Amino acid sequence: MATFIVLLGPPGVGKGTQAKILSEKTKLAHVSSGDLFRENLKKQTELGKLAKSFMDKGELVPDDVTISMIRDRITRPDCEAGAILDGFPRTPAQADALEKMLTEFKSEVSKVPYITAAEEILVERTSGRWTCPQGHTYHAKFNPPKQAGVCDVDASELYQRDDDQVETVTKRIRVYLEQTMPLVEHYRKAGKLVEVHGDQPVEQVTKDLLAALDM
Ligand code: AMP
Q: For this structure, is 129 an active site residue?
């Protein structure tokens, strides 16, 4: 059976960074709903234009479009063995839809690592974040690039995401508490939740995640 891992945790806790590392180590595809929206935005697709209005405000994109975007993505051949889902599901309706999709594929959510950290850390981390157009991420204080403003991997110019401004970050955390927190209880009841402390060096969080996942 395919292995679908749902990474849960507030904005800024390091989900994206960890999802990329886990994907390299486990060879499972990395599926990030935020990255998919940002790709659509860059290509100026209808979906991108729709998503932008919500993303700029720190709000969630409506469930129906988000669910169909993820359905398209996880039916691609690179997800046959499973995937690390980063940023999806984010609402109970999305979690239900995911369950139905995976049942169709004769699969299910394997485990749900829940990465935690205190709110003030999240704001500090997110508002210092720098990204390259290919998605490599840095932090001005915790994970600076070798040369300021330039990606270590592909030398492209780094930028700050529009939605990483302090006010938007605070809003995203509030949206997370209201709409995504119920999923923690949902997956805990299902016996799939494993908690990992996000307020540690990146390598230690990865170690804890791999141990929690038995991988
Ligand atoms: P992220 O990169 O995961 O922080 O996502 C950036 C933004 O994309 C979020 O603030 C939302 O506006 C949107 N987004 C990402 N994933 C979802 C999702 N599963 N449901 C709704 N909106 C999402």
A: yes
